[in-house]
Amino acid sequence: MKLTGWISTAVLSLMFAASIAMYAQEQHDQQEEKKEKPAEQKEKKTQPAKPAKQEERSTEQRNDAKQQEQKSTAQHNDAKQKEQRSTEQHNDAKQQERTAQQENKNAEQQNKTAKHEQQAHQQQQHSSHAAPAQQAHHGGRIPDDRFRAHFGQEHRFRVTAANYSSHRFQYGGYWFGFVDPWPTNWLYTQDVYVVDIDGVYYLCNAMYPGVNIALSVTL
Fold it and tell me: Residue 166 and residue 212: Cα distance in Å, rounded?
């Protein structure tokens, strides 16, 4: 019995000692693992970034820089085009202004020329009308009683082409000279008569009232 009890005690003691040794070994292993883990984590932290990620970031940065450069170039081109359009519009406005000024000058010059021509024409007409009247005034005067007896609208006669070719005709005892040209629409077969208007003798045609030929009288 004693031997058996002693053996049991010895076995229990060995088992207890083994348990203690195993627990101690486990604690030691856990401490070693704890020591190793921070070192591994530190190594992981200190490890450089993977080359693939760095290259990707570098490519993105280059793309961003290229896009920014393209935007800047596009903005510069837009500003340059706007400036060119503004310059063209300014030049067009100046050209239109110069054209308008030139047109105004041309119109003024044309008006001046037209006025000069009109004045010259009026002076020429006045001279042409005044000359026959002056020539007619230089002729003689028919006494009023003789004029009423032989001349006027009620005393009509005809002038021949030969009379006009010789630049004179005779009627009522007086010779008349043609001061004005023969109207193109007058016929020598039409009746004419002599009137006195403001001291000037005129040959008239009843078919064409208002168209008269100034005459000079030779007494």
Answer: 19
